[in-house]
């Protein structure tokens, strides 16, 4: 929701992608695995390598063989959970993870897998006890320390993250994730030369790890090498077309490298949609300004200054989406809810354990005007993951159902689980402001502004209202001046 982001803001969500830099989804090998039968260890290793290469059918065959050797081994069920998750069978992956814990309640990879799943579904606070349990079961568990450090970083606990990285360095001095995580910390602190050196030492960008490539692009932007950043980001966006932050970073790199015409051609149609972020709208506007087209720039700048729409777009269409998803979204955008619902029902029959299909089905139900049914389906998706866009739509569904208390509770839980999400903080502050609870609204807004929302007029204007309501004249003057500084002098067409 922020109007303008500093380069460092592109580091948001860099670390969470770490679940897969070594072994997928934070499983990996524990010291206890060394005592297993050599044949079983070999099969599990072969399955891991097949999964890493995207050969899911081959991995499944290897795990079937493993099951024949020892069907009650928790390592087997951790691997099955990972395979199911990779294959889009999210709900049955949870069942396999539960089975792994039943068979090995103190088995570190099973505990870590549960921690990662809880982190994705319920946030940082819910996951911490499970991370600690995994590390208590095996204090030398390198994957446990790496994932814990990553999670602490994304929760804004930089000091605790540094401690965890140091512990990882003690138990696994040669682990590539040590310099990578140190590079993330350095970049977040604005030490880009050090971050570049540490990232190179990790070798992860050279291997094509997405999180490392994103960090490489962010560092390049900070160093003024926008052309290099754009090349990296184009590849990442091609692999993850629905990743909004990557798309915004690519647009920024294109603008800074003087490729305004390409930026307009690629992102101009998206900037015209209601759900477009103010930041992307602003970048497209600046691209029009770059080529002297004030007529097209002015209305976009005005839109960017108004901030994000309070009601999220339920079904957005972007380039690169899978054909079934694109078909559903296109049908919804033209109001053909019969086709959209029929398509999601067919997808649900084909992929009954997919959280992604459940979320898409909820979007269709919400768009069709049935918020209670949408909430029922969203509840299935949130057993697996609860990203901010999904939370935002569930909040809208609760509000449309007349349950404002549930909407407030869901927003508060999201903020507790993702305390550095500026958009969630601002959304919760807006709700507090509407109720006249300006003290809490001010606290949330101060945190959001510290995270980079200080260039967005919407939270600044709300913070000004809070200062006035709380009878804080000095703060009111400060935010009024800040708001005046952010607003451009002229936004009229000429």
UniProtKB/TrEMBL annotation:
<keyword id="KW-0645">Protease</keyword>
<dbReference type="Pfam" id="PF13432">
    <property type="entry name" value="TPR_16"/>
</dbReference>
<dbReference type="GO" id="GO:0008233">
    <property type="term" value="F:peptidase activity"/>
</dbReference>
<keyword id="KW-0677">Repeat</keyword>
<dbReference type="GO" id="GO:0006508">
    <property type="term" value="P:proteolysis"/>
</dbReference>
<dbReference type="InterPro" id="IPR019734">
    <property type="entry name" value="TPR_rpt"/>
</dbReference>
<feature type="repeat" description="TPR">
    <location>
        <begin position="74"/>
        <end position="107"/>
    </location>
</feature>
<protein>
    <submittedName>
        <fullName>Tetratricopeptide repeat protein</fullName>
    </submittedName>
</protein>
<dbReference type="Pfam" id="PF14559">
    <property type="entry name" value="TPR_19"/>
</dbReference>
<keyword id="KW-0802">TPR repeat</keyword>
<keyword id="KW-0378">Hydrolase</keyword>
<dbReference type="InterPro" id="IPR011990">
    <property type="entry name" value="TPR-like_helical_dom_sf"/>
</dbReference>
<dbReference type="InterPro" id="IPR051012">
    <property type="entry name" value="CellSynth/LPSAsmb/PSIAsmb"/>
</dbReference>
